[in-house]
Design goal:
With about 475 residues, the protein is α/β, with parallel strands linked by helices. It contains eleven helices and 17 strands. The strands form three sheets. The protein has a ten-stranded mixed beta sheet, with helices on both faces.
């Protein structure tokens, strides 16, 4: 498969000057020698970031030097897919390593803040829980969005420590999801802290890295930023927070400049985390991944794709992804191997010397062989569904079956990444085969509850979606 971005707005030339930086320092040799040989893992997740919203994936309008630094010192995954076109469903797949459609909370698109009865079942063999069995310290910094405390929460699903928001969105200054409704936690206690949320999350991640550096055990940090999810507030936009008065469904705010500041603020914090790894002597044997939970939304750049969050077009599913592991992955690489969110669980477990719980088998695969040999690729078969507008999708190699309402398509997403040329009549056998395989897969998944929520762009709020209606309550 050929990288869809290779012909437009390629990797910025200026990134070639970036590297691991100064020589590793700050940890005595004796202390470093006592550390586990297992790699540390920092998994960084953006929220609603478009494929080309970072400069190493072609953004021409602003730079993201820290994310570019991960790419330069490691590998770009140019064919990375999200498990869903919306956040909490993808997060269900990430933490379980399975299609979210097998798990009740993954059928909400996303989990509504008003629904306190839905969440990730406590006690499942999640990614952090399985890494704990491999000797890891585990922490979630940032957005949870897999069910509201006290019934659900990170500490009930394998994390030793939690610092962040429980819901799906937050004002960047009040940290509330709704007026007067607190959701900012340290472990299982609500807290009140002043500051721009992106900065607070970065500071906590740095604190954890420095603290874990003094211990012998490997660590797993999930750093899940809520940026650049609405409301559209940059680091200097506290006045906008006051204008919104806690009503964060921000349909009359934002612009491209504000969006750039939100992404760049996140990139700055990622840079601080990378610096902390180097200063602590941990950079060489730490896996750092950066990606997004789904495709972009209003102000995102999803080039060269069409579609946005909430849609099974490539723009709603394709995400930027970069990985750095200096001890094992050669710098300056690129792979066109298709990967998907649920692959991270078996991949991280393999790096830690383990395998997924056989009683809770992963639907993903270990992608380490493709990182070691970027020229190696194999076709994958991915399936998606999305309740709003009855969307179905099945990717097999370079071909994709797509259904939106009553319209059906067959696309070659490698040679036609904008999904314009419908091949279903030219290749009827392939079209029928992919459709049939989707139906077989769907028969193994849980049915959508009648009243489950499904978000999508509609004509009332998105002028380019005129005629599209929202999901009825």
């Amino acid at each position: 498969m050929v990288g869809a971005n290779s012909g437009r707005r390629g990797f910025l030339a200026g990134v070639t000057g970036l590297g691991l930086g100064a020589a590793l320092q700050g940890v005595p040799a004796a202390q470093a020698a006592t550390r586990s040989s297992k790699p540390n893992i920092i998994f960084i997740l953006a929220d609603d970031l478009g494929y080309a919203d970072v400069s190493c994936f072609g953004n021409p309008d602003f730079s993201t030097p820290a994310i570019d630094r991960i790419a330069h010192d490691g590998i770009r995954l140019t064919h990375a897919y999200a498990n869903s076109a919306v956040c909490s469903a993808t997060r269900t797949a990430l933490i379980t390593g399975r299609y979210q459609d097998r798990i009740a909370c993954g059928l909400e698109e996303p989990i509504s803040g008003a629904n306190k009865a839905v969440g990730l079942t406590p006690g499942l063999p999640t990614l952090p829980a399985q890494l704990k069995k491999q000797g890891y310290k585990t922490a979630l910094v940032g957005k949870w969005h897999l069910g509201s405390p006290p019934h659900f929460g990170p500490l009930k699903s394998g994390y030793d420590h939690f610092y962040g928001i429980s819901g799906g969105a937050a004002d960047y200054f009040t940290h509330q999801g709704h007026p007067g409704e607190d959701q900012f936690y340290r472990d299982d206690h609500l807290i009140h802290e002043h500051g721009y949320l992106t900065g607070l999350l970065g500071q906590e991640a740095v604190r954890l890295v420095k603290g874990y550096a003094r211990e012998k055990d490997p660590f797993f940090i999930s750093l899940h930023f809520n940026a650049p999810h609405w409301p559209w507030e940059g680091p200097e936009d506290e006045a906008e927070s006051r204008r919104l008065k806690g009503h964060i469904f921000d349909y009359d705010g934002g612009n491209l400049k504000t969006y750039a500041k939100m992404v760049q603020a996140m990139d700055t914090q990622i840079g601080h985390v990378l610096d902390a790894l180097e200063q602590s002597g941990l950079a060489q044997n730490t896996i750092v991944v950066f990606t997004s939970d789904n495709g972009g939304e209003r102000y995102s750049d999803t080039w060269p794709f069409t579609g946005i969050k909430g849609e099974l077009l490539e723009g709603g599913l394709r995400v930027p992804a970069v990985l750095r592991w200096p001890e094992q992955v050669k710098a300056g690489q690129e792979t066109a191997q298709p990967v998907i969110t649920m692959d991270w669980l078996p991949t991280f477990l393999a790096a830690a010397g383990g395998v997924p719980d056989p009683a809770f088998a992963s639907d993903g695969i270990n992608i380490l062989p493709f990182l070691a040999d970027p020229a190696r690729t194999q076709d994958r078969s991915f399936f998606w569904r999305y309740k709003l507008r009855d969307q179905h999708a099945h990717l097999l190699g370079q071909y994709k079956y797509l259904k939106i309402e009553q319209n059906e398509f067959l696309f070659d997403v490698v040679n036609d990444p904008r999904e314009r040329a419908n091949l279903k009549d030219r290749q009827p056998d392939l079209f029928a085969h992919l459709k049939q395989e989707w139906e077989q897969w769907n028969s193994q998944m849980l049915p959508y509850p009648e009243r489950s929520y499904s978000w999508g762009a509609d004509g009332k709020h998105f002028a380019d979606h005129y005629g599209a209606t929202p999901e009825e309550d």
